[in-house]
Amino acid sequence: HYVPCYVIINNLEFDHADIFKDLDQIKVQFKKLIDLTPDKKLIFANLDDKNVRDLIAELGLLESVSGVLPYDGAASGESYVYLSSDEPVEDSGDDILWRAKIHSKVLGALDIETRLAGKHNVANICQAIAVVSKMIETQAIKSRPGLGAELCEAIRQFKGVKRRMELLANKNNI
Question: Does residue 164 have a pLDDT over 70?
Answer without folding.
Answer: no
